């Protein structure tokens, strides 16, 4: 969640290999000076007490979370990131007290790794942002725990895990995501970013990548991890100056070179993620042939070449998209990846373009699935079972789980 540790990131479902996090060593985080006199910066202007008091989420006792995750049992681990491990747990829907596994609602409990040095700031940023924001494309933060040196965050459980797992996990039991599901996820994630950029004190997410896009049982995308999020520039300022932090392969070139952060930095990261979604290839992969390690560098020359653009697309899509849609999608990626931030569209424009990209059939199908899931409601954090009269919903839900682990069942 936006922290740089020189350690390997291990995920119980997917090994990403080398830790791709970075933080600049020479630049200074100018957050304090930039936000002087305004109520824009998370850390500079609101004290921990103010943030915790004003958040409307529950403060959990450590013992409650210990009980709900069966003492943080290793077989409850959903995944692991820079912040620490994420555990599956159970709480009572009404009282939010720990409940017996299998009863109440399912939660995901993220526990800060105590060896981490920068975790507290990110933990607080998550509460500051997610504790106040609410949007269908942002993951719900249900509560937190601050007790002695324990720092935990409690989220709604996302049954299909992260988009990273769905895109890059290989195995005979894993079907590739269909074109319509990929477009649905891209649109949902774009809406999440557009929402952040559109709020009164605009928010720059700064850590947009496929592992931070979580998926509900209907492939609705929800952004998680606001540890690196920053308030956007205020007044006549064009950018926020920060220490460069994020994940290799996703950060905008001007942000990397100058530390100048704008909403257009997120748009660039969206372009990288969209390219990953279209190609099924990771942003950085040293196992690819020489000259192809960096996805953007490799793909860019093809994106505006009508005859060669198809080389970029994931062969596992097997032509589910029309050539026209493929070209439109390539054009969106290319614009988001413009070197000059001024030439990039804003996220509202990206949302509009992605909406147009969805075929009418797909849109109707996705809307139908959403309506059905709303009607059915959830019990125990899982969708209720579907009858045979709902073929579309059943088909999408028949997609492979992100992990062979029963935790994602
Ligand atoms: N709310 C959730 N519901 C279900 N699974 C989750 C949830 N939050 C996280 N996970 C799982 O835990 C994994 C680790 O999440 P985490 O956000 O800590 O790290 P990450 O995003 O993979 O990496 P990074 O630290 O670089 O952001 C995710 O990839 C996902 O599989
Ligand atoms: Mg994450």
What attributes does this structure have?
409 residues, alpha+beta, two-stranded antiparallel ribbon, disordered N terminus, binds adenosine-5'-triphosphate, binds magnesium ion
- Give helix and strand order, one letter per element, not per position: EHHHEHEEEHEEHHEEEEEEHEHHHHHEEH
Small-molecule binders here are: adenosine-5'-triphosphate, magnesium ion
Given as residue ranges, the uncertain stretches (5+ residues, pLDDT < 50) are: 2-19, 24-44, 373-404
Q: Please give the radius of gyration in angstroms.
A: 21 Å
Can you give the mean pLDDT? Answer: 79
Spatially, the strands of the biggest sheet line up as 2-6-7-5-4-3
| β-strand amount | 5-15%
Give the end-to-end Cα distance, rounded to a whole number of Å.
24 Å
The residue fraction in helices comes out at: 25-40%
The largest pleated sheet is described as:
6 strands, mixed
Instruction: Name the structural class.
Output: alpha+beta
Q: What gross morphology would you assign?
A: globular
Q: How many separate helices?
A: 14
Count of strand segments: 16
Biased composition (Polar residues): 32-47, 369-379
Subcellular location: Cell membrane
GO molecular function: ATP binding; protein serine/threonine kinase activity
Enzyme class: transferase
């Amino acid at each position: 969640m936006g922290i740089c540790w020189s350690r390997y990131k291990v995920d119980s479902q997917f090994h990403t290999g080398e830790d791709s996090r970075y933080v600049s060593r020479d630049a200074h985080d100018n957050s304090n000076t930039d936000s002087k006199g305004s109520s824009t910066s998370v850390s500079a202007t609101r004290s921990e007490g103010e943030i915790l008091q004003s958040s409307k989420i529950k403060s959990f006792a450590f013992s409650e979370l210990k009980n709900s995750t069966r003492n943080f049992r290793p077989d409850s681990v959903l995944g692991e990131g820079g912040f620490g491990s994420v555990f599956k747990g159970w709480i009572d829907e009404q009282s939010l007290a720990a409940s017996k596994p299998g009863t109440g609602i399912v939660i995901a409990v993220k526990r800060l790794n105590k060896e981490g040095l920068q975790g507290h700031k990110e933990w607080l940023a998550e509460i500051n942002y997610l504790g106040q924001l609410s949007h269908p494309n942002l993951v719900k933060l249900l509560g937190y725990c601050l007790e002695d040196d324990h720092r935990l965050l409690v989220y709604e459980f996302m049954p299909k895990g992260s988009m990273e797992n769905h895109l890059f996990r290989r195995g005979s039991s894993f079907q590739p995501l269909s074109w319509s599901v990929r477009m649905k996820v891209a649109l949902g994630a774009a809406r999440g970013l557009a929402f952040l950029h559109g709020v009164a004190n605009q928010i720059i997410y700064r850590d947009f990548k496929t592992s931070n896009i979580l998926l509900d049982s209907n492939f609705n995308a929800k952004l998680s991890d606001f540890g690196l999020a920053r308030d956007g520039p205020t007044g006549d300022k064009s950018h926020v100056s920060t220490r460069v932090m994020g994940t290799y392969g996703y950060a905008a070139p001007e942000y990397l070179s100058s530390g100048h952060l704008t909403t257009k930095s997120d748009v660039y990261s969206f372009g990288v993620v969209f390219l990953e979604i279209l190609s099924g290839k990771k942003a950085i992969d040293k196992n690819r042939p020489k000259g192809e390690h960096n996805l953007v560098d490799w793909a860019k020359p093809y994106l505006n070449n009508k005859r060669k653009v198809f080389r970029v697309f994931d062969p596992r899509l097997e032509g589910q998209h029309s050539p026209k849609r493929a070209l439109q999608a390539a054009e969106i990626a290319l614009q988001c990846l413009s070197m000059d931030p001024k030439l990039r569209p804003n996220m509202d424009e990206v949302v509009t373009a992605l909406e147009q990209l969805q075929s009418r059939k797909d849109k109707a199908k996705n809307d139908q699935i959403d309506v059905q899931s709303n009607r059915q409601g959830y019990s125990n954090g899982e969708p209720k079972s579907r009858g045979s009269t709902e073929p579309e919903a059943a088909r999408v839900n028949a997609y492979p789980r992100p992990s062979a682990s029963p935790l994602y069942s």
